[in-house]
User: What shape does this take?
Amino acid sequence: MNDIKQQLAPSWSAVNIAIAAILFLIGWWPLGLVMIAYIVWGSKVGLDLSRPETVSGFASRISAAIKAGIDSFTKG
Assistant: This one.
């Protein structure tokens, strides 16, 4: 039997599809779109929910990019 943590990896697994479908059904379609984007592009951007350490690395890269964008906007 597959471990649910392994199925949270960015791929078309039954768990990921169920999460996206449930999000759409309960009316949280923007989060459903985010889940589909994670399934499709999660491995390309280095985000893997089956390994929690990638979440903090991803968050730090995003915050650094936002900070750099704000700095370049305020200086320019």
Observations:
- DSSP finds four helices and no strands in the chain.
- The longest helix spans residues 53-75.
- The chain has a mean pLDDT of 83.
